[in-house]
Amino acid sequence: MDKIIITGGAGFIGSHVCERLLDEGRYVVCVDDFNDYYRPEIKERNIKNCLKSNRFSLHRLDIRDENKLDTVFKKEKIDKIIHLAARAGVRASLKEPQLYFSVNIGGTLNLLDMARRHKISQFIFSSSSSVYGTNKKIPFSEEDKAGNQVSPYAVSKKVAELLCHSYSKIYKLRVICLRLFTVYGPRGRPDMAPYKFTEKILNQQAIEMYGNGSSQRDYTYVGDIVEGIVKTLSCEREFEIINLGNSEPVKLIEFINIIEDLLGKKADIIQKPMPRGDVPITYADNSKASKILNWRPKTDIMEGMKRFIAWYRLESKSG
Ligand SMILES: NC(=O)c1ccc[n+]([C@@H]2O[C@H](COP(=O)([O-])OP(=O)(O)OC[C@H]3O[C@@H](n4cnc5c(N)ncnc54)[C@H](O)[C@@H]3O)[C@@H](O)[C@H]2O)c1
Fold first, then answer.
1. For ligand 1, is residue 78 a contact (CB within 6 Å)?
2. Element spanning 263, H or E
3. Is beta strand 175-180 parallel, antiparallel or unpaired with respect to 183-184?
4. 292: domain CATH number?
């Protein structure tokens, strides 16, 4: 069985990937620095179950620390890398662009270099739909130029993709960049709309709606994303960029209505201007993922949000 390192493995998506690979009987090495972008206790909880497995090891380190990373790679004899660690969050990247560049670009470069030095057989990188920026053509296709990034976060992901491409070409590394579209579901990040809206509506606090509610996001259920990542592990291609998105964008106001219906509570909405760095729409063309990975999203927004809210209620009870 392959031994797979998952950077950012204690995060939202990473912890689901760790659990899924352990369920498949694989060996999982998790690297995470448990930073305080959101409460580190949440990340500790995310991997609580994984820690019970003797096929799981955890290294608490910053991916910018090349020496510590190298020690892990020497010790663990890794076969494949799933690189998810990043500073996520478009809006926060406007406040701390240097930090976003150092982690998302510098950190990715370190991991690519580990892949080269330690003869890793495959590198999977979590890119983002935000690289399409204000792309006019919808749905967004991997063939599109993707040169209209409007936030430091989006730029950092685009540069990281370019580094992936160059390392793949120079060192014959097998690299797949997955462009993930607004991922949601159990363990969802507290800075993202599904969590913030659910929390506030339940606690009868006002929610902020940016713009007039017509902006659209291609919400994609975390279980579908995990399935896409697992399928990518058997992809033999040398270099590809592949969208993983639901391909059914939802208007912000409709998204709020869905949460209201599921909670049986009305939201108190305060309208705010669109923040700088936000884009009007994300919308994935999934035909490449379907052709190359045989991947299709299975979870619609109603079902996914039902599962998210069920998880949220349990979590908030357990404190
Ligand atoms: N959630 C989404 O909607 C979405 C969409 C597109 C792309 N992505 C990408 O998917 C990946 C995972 O996102 P997520 O939503 O699970 O975010 P997350 O913040 O929950 O997970 C990221 C994890 O990386 C860790 N990390 C951050 N900087 C690190 C560093 N310097 N060293 C070691 N660990 C570090 C964090 O502690 C965290 O546990 C990220 O690369 C993100 O950019 C997410």
1. no
2. helix 252-263
3. unpaired
4. 3.40.50.720
Copy the structure tokens of residue 277: 């760095």
Q: What is the pLDDT of residue 319?
A: 64
Q: Residue 234 — left, alpha, or beta (φ > 0 → left; ψ -120 to 50 → alpha)?
A: alpha
Taking all residues of the chain, what is their mean pLDDT, rounded to a whole number?
97
The pLDDT of residue 278:
85
Place of tokens 């992809």: 235
Reduced to 3 states (helix: H, G, I; strand: E, B; else coil), residue 128 is strand
Q: pLDDT for 216-242, tens place per residue?
A: 999 999 999 999 999 999 999 999 999
Max CA-CA distance within the chain?
Answer: 56
Q: Mean pLDDT, to the nearest integer, of 168-191?
A: 98
> Which of 50, 58, 84, 221 has most ligand 1 atoms within 8 Å of its beta carbon, as the pocket-test mutant?
84
Tokens of 308: 């998210």
Number of domains in the chain: 1
Tokens 């950092």 correspond to 156
Q: What is the pLDDT of residues 253-276, one digit of tens each?
A: 999 999 999 999 999 999 999 988
Torsion of CA 187, 192, 194, 195, to 10 degrees: 60
State if pTM tops 0.90. Answer: yes
CA of 86 to the centre of ligand 1 (A): 4
Look up the domain containing 122 and give its range.
3-318
String of b and e for 119-144 (b: at least 16 CB within 10 Å)? Answer: ebebbbbbbbbbbbbebeebbbbbeb
Residue 183 one-letter amino acid: V
**Catalytic residue IDs:** 153
Only one residue has tokens 């976003």, namely 100
CB atoms within 10 A of CB 319: 5
If 0-12 CB within 10 Å is exposed, 13-18 middle and 19+ buried, where does residue 115 land? buried
Provide the 8-state DSSP code for 185: S
